[in-house]
Design a protein that fits this description.
With 107 residues, the protein is an alpha+beta fold. It has three helices and six strands, in the order E-H-E-H-H-E-E-E-E.
């Protein structure tokens, strides 16, 4: 359930409030290799782990079996209340943060 008021898209983004639920099946997250990131976290040598993690976060793709998220929005700021991504091979990722829609910033 979302509501907004104003004249034009910019005003609507700033006023957008309510709740949203998102669901995705069989998708791909571009720009993140989650399997490589998980493997990097298991490395014992800190410099090698850091280099591998940076590489995993800098590119690649993560195929998803499904993803679900619940958002609460107030005055154009979307707070991620609960988000889980289930990747191929059983890897589960949780997300948190905020999306500032008027400024187009992900925090």
């Amino acid at each position: 359930r979302l509501a907004a008021q104003g004249h034009g898209a910019a005003a609507w983004r700033e006023a957008l409030s309510g709740t949203a639920r998102l669901a995705l099946r069989d998708g791909i997250v571009q720009g993140l290799d989650a399997t490589a990131a998980a493997a990097a976290l298991g490395r014992e040598e800190i410099r090698a782990a850091e280099a591998a993690l940076r590489a995993a976060l800098a590119g690649g793709a993560t195929p998803l079996d499904r993803a679900e998220a619940r958002l609460a929005l107030e005055n154009g700021i979307a707070r991620i209340e609960d988000a889980t991504l289930l990747a191929e091979g059983g890897l589960a990722l949780s997300l948190s943060g905020r999306v500032d829609l008027p400024r187009e910033v992900l925090e």
